[in-house]
Amino acid sequence: MAGKRLQRPADNEGWRITAHPAAGASSQHLKPKFSLEHLDRTFCLSACTRDEKAAFADRLHELSQLTWRDIAGTGRHGQGSETIARSAIRSPIPACITEDVRIIAFRCIGKAPMVGYRVDEVFFVVWIDRGFSLYNHG
Fold first, then answer.
1. What residues contact 45, with CB distance under 8 A and at least 6 apart?
2. Could you tell me if 37 and 116 are in contact, meaning their C-beta atoms sit under 8 angstroms apart?
3. Mean pLDDT by 10 residues, the chain (138 residues)
4. CA nearest to 115, candidates 56, 46, 28
5. Residue 79 and residue 69: Cα distance in Å, rounded?
6. How far is the C-alpha of 46 from the C-alpha of 42, rounded, in Å?
7. Strand duo 122-128 + 33-35: pairing
């Protein structure tokens, strides 16, 4: 072993840690992560029944096993999602959802959607629309 040297890692790596991909890089190949950081108090989990909370958790787990590319390739009532027009939302829109942010809905409790927005691989749940009153569901 004498004379062998460890190779120095690249500037964006540590011995066991690599840097997060550059901002703006595609995250379609990544599995989604979910945040409840911006969850609205009117459309939140505390209004849900025990069974609805379980269905919500099951749905998050189910979606987290797919990639964003997989989700994009499915129908809006299955594993997929749909875009909701900002003007269709009947609740105050928090400041974190700026004009350039796309609002997305996923079915999570039967056909009842969770609605929020995506930043890279993270989906921020803002509303859980169990009463179908957040927007016109057509």
1. 36, 39, 53, 56, 128
2. no
3. 62 57 73 96 94 97 93 70 94 95 94 96 97 90
4. 56
5. 11
6. 9
7. parallel
